[in-house]
Amino acid sequence: MLFLKAAFLAAVVAAANAVKPADLSVNNTDSIVGVAKTLASGAMSYYSGNASSFADLPEPYYWWEAGALMGAMLDYSYYTNDTSYDDIIATAIMANTGPANNFIVPAHELDEGNDDQAFWAFTALTAAERNFTQPAELTPKGVPSWLDISINVWNDMVVRWNTTMCAGGFTWQIYANNFNGLDYKNSASNGGFFLISARLALLTGNQTYVDWAHKVWDWTYGVGIINKNYDVFDGTDSATNCTEINPLSFSYQNGIFLYGTAALANQTGDDVWATRAQGLLYASRRFFSPYNNATDVMWEHACEGVGTCTKDMKAFKGFLSRFMYSAVQILPSLAPNVTDYMRTSATAAGKACTGANIGNATSGDGTTCGQKWYVGGFDGSVGLGQEMCALETVQGLIGLNNVIAAANAPEPSPSPTAPAPSPSSSKKSSAPGTPQVDLRWTVASTLCALFLFTMA
Question: Where is the composition biased (Low complexity) (predicted)?
Answer without folding.
Answer: 423-432
